[in-house]
Amino acid sequence: MTDRRRLSPDARTTLEEIRALEAWLDEAIDLVDLIQIRERDLPASHLCALVTGIAGRARGTRTTVVVNDRADVGLASGADGLHVRADGPPVDRLRALGPPHWLMGRSIHSLAEVGPTPGVDFREPANRLPESSLADYLIFGTVFRSASKPDGQTQGLEAVRALTAAATVPILAIGGIDPSRAAACRAAGAAGIAAIGIFLPDGRAPEAMGITRAVEALRAAMTAE
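^ that's the sequence the OP posted. Answer follows.
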């Protein structure tokens, strides 16, 4: 997941931020499974150019590229899909705008957000959403306290375990992820993890390892017996 300002806090212009972001994401291609370009405040022209370049270079590799929220940018850039905020439009409405193969993800921050209405127990079969309205994956957090959301409510591993036990789609855990916490999330049932800080260049944040080292450490932690 991207955050160009955390990546290049000393950049003087938006273009400098974008150049640093492109270089960082180029390193991620064919190492990570999913790049989520989360730069909502970029002008559409800048965002479209960024996504077009990254998606084009990732095509044919193990890496899938999705863009946050912007269906217009996703379509124009050839992105592999969209990632929708918890308070974003219904997934089935956005899915209908794109090609059949579009990958659709959604962020959620509590168990109740999975249900058709807040507070309804989504684990009851009668309350399940129609298949067409479901995302292909959910990013769930904040699991542990993180630098991105230091004051945000944390959900903890028990919430991960409850969600993954009932979910019909893969759950990716996010928030304060390091290798040991990634392994704990996997043990709780998460299909994978999402992160910003650990992938930043070494020294950019306390948890930063750089993309190559972070991927190696996280994959080892999540596949260990």
